[in-house]
Amino acid sequence: MQTQSTAQSAGPSLMPMITGAWASQAICVAAALGLADLLALEHQSEEALAHATGTQPAALARLLRALASLGVFRETEQQGLFASTPLGDQLRSDVPGSLRNLAMMVGAPEARRAWSDLTYSVRTGNSAFQKVFGMDTYEYRSKHPEDRAVFNAAMADMTRQVAAAAIAAYDFSRFRSIVDAGGGNGALLASLLTTTPGLNGILFDLPSGTEGAPELIAAAGIGERCEIVHGDFFKALPAGADAYLLKSVMHNWNDEMCCMILKNCAAAMSATARLLLVEQVLPARIEAVPLHRRALMTDLNMLVMTGGCERGEAQYSQLLRESGLEIKAIVPTASSFSIIEASRAHQPQ
Questions:
Q1: Which amino acids are annotated catalytic?
Q2: How far apart are the first and last CA of the chain?
């Protein structure tokens, strides 16, 4: 008689995914304590790390060992001494491509509380964050400046990585002027202007969004070519630019809100201007590969946190068409993001 195999007898185990929240929280705490920075130059003992971070030595040792089991840190041949690893180095605050702020953002108490009510979002299609806190993420961060600072820093870190891939994939030198709408502290626009000498830019966002922008622009040496304009893209955008750039804006909003933004873009654009949406474009068929996983888990996070979503080519085409725009090209980059180039739709005579 053939026996039925058990769920765990063959193939990969689901256990690491089930306990993934534990790993995420351990990494978040390591980031918040600055452990990777402390381990950057030399091996450190549990006692020294506990003293430097104001933590209980035995409890910190348990955290360090758990992180060593994940490969984030490693225990040296001398028991009780810990060192960093290539994974752990990504939590340092002083390295290009740092993920420290992202780790703190993902593991923040407000994010965990919202994700704990994922069932609500799946049942209703609405933001669990809005339900839990009685306000959207933007209003929440306006009331919690420390959380806003971590969020803004995390977005800037991620933007710098995407910027390099976008610049390598797309010819921005064809434009003389560009508006970065919802551009935050200007990390993306600064990268564009630094690598494209003939380009002038307008950083357009709410005052709370442009915190740190003047300092970043000054440090990049582009002050004469970059203007900060405060405004709301739900109302209007500066007119007359050759290109309008929106990175990771569409995925924050539902279709109705996206159309409001896109219609304002169309109103500001000339017949020859281009709209450039930098977004993750979902594939038509999902496979269990890292690139798809990142996009789809981000999509789920948008459902929980903002009520927005990631979209595929057909969905973007429809949004743009409803807003008086049309896709000219979709340019993939070396990152998970693509550049959706659009223009004002041709009006029949």
A1: 251
A2: 76
